[in-house]
Design brief:
By secondary structure, the protein is mainly alpha-helical. It contains 19 helices and twelve strands. The strands form five sheets. It has a three-stranded parallel sheet with strand order 1-2-3. A three-stranded antiparallel sheet has the order 4-5-8. The longest helix has 16 residues. Bound molecules: glutamic acid.
């Protein structure tokens, strides 16, 4: 029986499209857990997820952990955690590639048994020599019964890669080396594992980084030898920094973990990274995840590298942050800082923040007393007349009955400004510095209202007392 006539991968669940049955779209995100999840990887995961969730497909997760030295359980957990934080979910249990090693070995053996592969001791030197003698044609070896396992690549014809994003490219078979699919010790190489796993998992669409594009002809050749269908391929463009270089730490936050620590919101990150290489139109910069799911298509993904610009992400994040209901904002701030009781401070800092990590510098003086900022003290309280203005403000504030409201405080301090015949800042800034220790705070009336009467007066008194010491 010819190889292609028999059921090669018996774990396939669904009938191929040629049987006339509609095939469910199945995509997969296949990270190698050799480090944290970078923004490029997160975007690949997102594109897979948007496509599946928008089109009633399934999203699978495969951990490509065959490099057992670099693939640590901590890295796996970090990647899962990053995906969970991004709210990118997956169907079923993750597949761990190293657990499929027997399956890979079995398929290698099948390819040997059927004559599609052979064992050869040829190393790089022999391959180079062959090429020299054969006008740079692809290496073809002889079956030596031992050594690495090589796939027999046909001498004729082309392998045609059809990519939804990059179009069609034909690779001349005669120029491809008989490719190694398992090492001499029997362990299958990445190319074989990917192809076998994609077929076993019944993947219909492979969406991955453009850095894998050059692997694809190899994968097609292995698929042909195994007699399995070729999925739809889409290689998404690489990410660059604003300087045109490949994205790295130099360009700011490079991993999902860092984005989280810097106080970005997952919905804003999804919005922004979806637009790195894909767009609804030229103008749209704010687009909800629901809209993304409905609108996303591989056909609209750009071929050229996209530029990650943290400033744009910040801007989008600020827009999302200000839209959050105060209770939700509070919950997220309490999550991030591990503190409780932040609601009042959250409510009055919301307008001033672009990221959640801007909260604490704005709000810390509510919880920890005035910030020790000697420059602000000298600059504001050292000005001629500042302490007199502060004293006048204190007098007026002492008269305001509780509960304090921003509107009432504004009216009372407004009268002080008027009576003194000075500019607003000459009264408000000394009060701000006395109460918060710094010039960076939420609105002064809101700040005082949240601080309350007793605490405000006590803080002002401490400054006045210290300034009258010899
Ligand atoms: N494990 C590969 C990576 O992390 C992805 C391979 C694939 O998607 O086919 O780059």
């Amino acid at each position: 029986m010819a190889l292609s006539d028999r059921p090669v991968l018996d774990r396939r669940r669904l009938s191929p499209a040629s049987s006339g049955m509609l095939r469910v779209m199945r995509v997969r995100f296949a990270p190698s857990p050799t480090g944290v999840l970078h923004i490029g990887g997160a975007r690949t995961a997102l594109y897979n997820w948007l496509l599946a969730r928008g089109q009633g497909g399934e999203m699978l997760l495969r951990v490509e952990d065959t490099d057992l030295e670099r693939s640590t359980p901590e890295n796996v957990e970090q990647i899962f955690e990053a995906l969970r934080w991004l709210e990118i979910d997956w169907d079923g249990e993750p597949v761990f590639q190293h657990e499929c090693a027997d399956r890979h070995a079995e398929q290698v053996q099948r390819l040997i048994d059927s004559g599609h592969a052979y064992r050869s001791k040829a190393g790089p030197a022999e391959v180079a020599e062959f090429k020299q003698e054969h006008a740079n044609r692809g290496f073809r070896g002889a079956d030596e019964g031992e050594g690495a396992v090589r796939l027999r690549v046909p001498d004729e014809g082309h392998t045609v890669v059809r990519d939804v994003i990059r179009g069609e490219s034909a690779f001349e078979n005669a120029l491809q080396d008989d490719l190694v699919i398992a090492r001499a010790d029997g362990t299958p190489v990445y190319h074989l594992a990917v192809v076998v796993d994609d077929a076993d998992m019944d993947i219909t669409h492979v969406i991955r980084g453009a850095d894998h594009y050059s692997n694809t002809p190899k994968h097609l050749l292995i698929q042909q030898a195994l007699g399995v269908e070729t999925p739809v391929y889409a290689h998404v463009p690489l990410l660059h920094g604003a300087d045109g270089k490949k994205l790295s730490k130099r360009h700011g936050a490079a991993s999902v973990q860092e984005l989280r620590e810097r106080g970005y919101l997952p919905e804003a990150v999804r919005n922004y990274i979806a637009l790195l290489g894909w767009g609804l139109d030229e103008e749209t910069t704010l687009i909800s995840t629901e809209e993304l799911k409905a609108a996303f298509s591989l056909e609209r993904v750009s071929r050229s590298p996209a530029v990650f610009d943290e400033q744009k992400l910040r801007w989008i994040n600020g827009r999302y942050l200000r839209e959050l209901p105060v209770d939700e904002l509070t919950r997220r701030l309490e999550d991030l800082t591990g503190r409780a009781g932040l609601r009042d401070a959250a409510a009055i800092t919301q307008e001033k923040m672009s990221t959640l990590d801007e909260f604490w510098p704005l709000a810390r003086s509510f919880f920890e007393g005035p910030v020790d900022d000697s420059r602000a003290r000298e600059k504001v309280l050292g000005k001629v007349g500042s302490l007199d203005n502060l004293r006048a403000a204190r007098g007026a504030l002492a008269e305001v009955p509780e509960p304090w409201t921003p509107a009432e405080l504004e009216a009372r301090l407004g009268s002080v400004v008027e009576q003194l015949g000075v500019k607003g800042g000459q009264v408000y800034q000394p009060v701000r510095v006395a109460v918060t220790g710094t010039t960076v705070s939420p609105g002064i009336f809101e700040t005082l209202a949240v601080m309350g009467r007793a605490e405000t007066l006590a803080r002002i008194d401490r400054v006045l007392a210290a300034s009258s010491e010899p």
